[in-house]
Every structure is written in C-alpha cells, then in structure tokens.
Amino acid sequence: MTRLYYTDSYTVTFDAAIIEQTTYEDAPAVVLDQTFFYPTSGGQPHDAGTLNDVPVIDVVVREADHAVLHVLKEALPDGEQVTGAIDWARRFDHMQHHTGQHILSQAFIQIADAATIGFHLSPDSVTIDLNQAEITAEHVVQAEALANRIVTENRPVYSLYPPTEQQLAELNLRKVPDVAGTLRVVDISGFDATACGGTHVAHTGEIGLIKVLKTERRGDTTRVEFRCGGRAFSDYQEKHALLNDVATDLTTGYDQIPAIVAKLREENKAQARELRTLRALALAHEAETLWQNADHEPDYTLITQVFADREMGEIRNLIQKLVAHPKTIVLCGTPGEKALMITACSDDLKLDMVEVLMNGLAVWGIERGGGRPTFAQGGGVKANAGQVETALQAAAIMVRNTL
Ligand SMILES: [Zn+2]
C-alpha cells in the first residue's frame, strides 16, 4: 500500500480501495491500497478523520507486514471504494509541532551542543529530551531566538523520499533512521536535515511561534516542553489573560507584579511574626487567669479544665505554663469523636499522673493511655463536654485523696 502522506502532507480528502477487512483490538479496521492517514509512529500521534463518514478512531502500523490499519468506530457498509477525510486542524497542529521540533532540536545542537534523544507529542504536551543535563536559561533564550529566526526566514521544507546518493552525501543528517526500509529525509533547507517519517509543513513560516515553556532536568538529560503555532498562541492568550487578571486584582501594571508580590510576602511575614507574639501574650494571659481561678489548697493547686475546639499545641503550651508554678496539678480534656484527657503536675509533687489518668479514663470505661509520672494522656473514644467533666472530677478525687 502507498503512504501518500510521505510526499504530500496537505491533501486531506482522497479516494481509495479497501484491500483488507480486519479487526484491531475488537474494533473493525481496514487496509487501503493507498492512504493519506498518518499512523501513530515516531513520537507523533495518528490522524483523525473519516472513511465514508465513519469516524477513524485510531491508525496503527501492523507489526507483521507494516500495513496501515484504519480502525473504525463501526464497520463500513459493503463496497470496495471509500472516500477518506482527514481532520485538518489536528493534522496541521501535528505538522507545525513536528517541523518545529526539527528546528528546535537543531537549535539546541548549535547553541548547547545538546542532541535530541526523544520526542513526544500529545494533545496536552509536546516535549523533546536532550542528552545534556546542563541546559541554562540563556541556552533556552538563544535556542528560541535561533528557532524563531528560521521560522521567519520562511525556508522551504523538503521531503526527500528517497534521497539521491548525491543528496545524502551533501546533507549532514542529524539523525540516521533506526528502522529498515526506504529512507525519508526531511530537509529544512540549509539548517537541518534528518531522517523522519512524520508530516511537516512546506515552509517554516507556517509553524508560527516556537516557544519553550519549561525545562526539567531528568538525571543526565533535560526534558524541554514547548509549543508551536496555534498552541503557542493559545498559551500566550491564556497567560496574558491570567497576568492581566492578577494585575487588575493588584491594581497595577503587569510589570509591577513581581515587586508587589515581594512586598506582600514581606508584609505577610511581618504579620505572621506579630500574630505569633500576640498569640503568645494571649496564651500567657489565659494561663494566668486559669491559675488565679484554680482551687488553691494549702499544699497544692488543682486546675481542672475542659477545652473545646482548641489546638493541641496551645493546650500543651498552657499546661506547661501552669505546671511551672510549684505544687500544681492540671487535669484537662477535649470532648469530641476522639475525646482526650491529659493529666500533668509540677515535678515537686509526689504523684503518679498515669495512675490519676487511669482513674479518670475508667469513667469512660477504657484504659487507653500512658505517660510518665508528671505527664500522661489517653482517650480516643467519643465523649461530650459533660462526660469529659465527669472523668476529670473522678481524677480530681484521686488527687485530693492522695495529697
Ligand atoms: Zn519530523
């Protein structure tokens, strides 16, 4: 069968004869005597379109005999002739990106001595992998500039299929083919020549803008994400709109955004510092109030407290402040799905807080907890504020009886 796209990327409607009816992964498929449909290969996805108005959902090369299978949404009605129609928007996007890739790959060789070892093109992303880990921002800027200069020079792009001996001798091929068969060379006149089976534009100007979006170091290689033509334009539109929104939100020009963001970040840091200071003051005041309102016995001070909706870090901080007073015991708890009880005392008291805790937890019918003589905690069962209070009182009775 003849692969017409090798010599003509622009024809998108054609007539052909069905030479085989088959299936591919349970879907109907046909082989044609000639086709303009590009099958998935060489990092480029397949074309989409129709055969006699039946959607072509996949185009694959059959391994056994390299026939191009047109996988169909439904079986074609009987008949030997079909009219094929290729989705031009998708095809042209692939042509722009594949030709753009050739140019960018050659640009990275010239600017950074970095060869392309991989190419990926999908609806969401387009990348090349370079065999160099050290690709700098300056390399990218220069490679982009060179690539876009080749675009604006509108150089003709030739498909040499097959190339003559003389052409092969004159062209310095960037990549030699890794598959057997007739050699096809894509020649971007005077800039890059490489073996490739994909679909390309006829003049570099059709590619439009070539823009690198990011580079990502991956071990000894670098992945370069880029966009060409329509996708580069959409990307620019999206980012410009985004930047405008942010600038409007900050009531500034977009060139002032970095300075304003830096200022906001500084203010945020200062406010966070101030908040920490105020929180510490509030906590110190709360600890002082709890201490004042505690039961002050001649030999000890006992504080029992139910904390609802409090951060554990704050509760621990409060306990620390309270047991810094001499001869002080703190019995506290938090209600909830996993209620918690904490018992603590200053280290000048001869009390075992684990034992006190267990006495409280017994009210909840559990023994889940532990710690050391001056600090213990346990719980993990559902209990409301009243039930927490009851357990704390049971623990308090033990403290009073012991001291
Ligand atoms: Zn190509």
List keywords for this structure.
Threonyl-tRNA Synthetase, Chain A, domain 2, 6-stranded antiparallel beta barrel, elongated, 36% helix, binds zinc ion, 6-stranded mixed sheet, Elongation Factor Tu (Ef-tu), domain 3, 8 helices, 21 strands, alpha+beta, 403 residues
The geometry reads as elongated
- Spatially, the strands of the biggest sheet line up as 2-3-7-6-5-8
Cofactors, ions and other ligands in the entry: zinc ion
As a percent range, the share of strand residues is 25-35%
Radius of gyration from CA coordinates: 37 Å
End-to-end gap: 100 Å
- The SSE order reads EEEEEEEEHEEHEHEEEEHHEEHEEHEEH
Mean pLDDT: 94
What is the percent of helical residues?
Answer: 25-40%
- Count of all domains: 4
CATH-level-4 superfamily name of the largest domain: Threonyl-trna Synthetase, Chain A, domain 2
CATH class category name of the largest domain: Alpha Beta
Biggest pleated sheet: 6 strands, antiparallel, barrel
Structural class: alpha+beta
How would you describe this structure to a colleague?
Helix content is 36%, strand content 30%. It has 403 residues and is an alpha+beta fold. It has four domains: 2-86, Elongation Factor Tu (Ef-tu), domain 3; 91-247, 2-Layer Sandwich (Threonyl-tRNA Synthetase, Chain A, domain 2); 251-292; 294-402, Diaminopimelate Epimerase, Chain A, domain 1 (Roll). It has a six-stranded antiparallel barrel. The chain has a six-stranded mixed beta sheet with strand order 16-17-18-19-21-20, with helices on one face. Strands 9-10-15-14 form a four-stranded antiparallel beta sheet. A hairpin with a 1-residue loop joins strand 18 (328-334) and strand 19 (336-345). Helix 7 crosses helix 8 (385-402). The radius of gyration is 37 Å and the shape is elongated. The N and C termini lie far apart (100 Å). The structure holds zinc ion. Residues 98, 102, 186, 196, 198, 200 line the site of zinc ion.
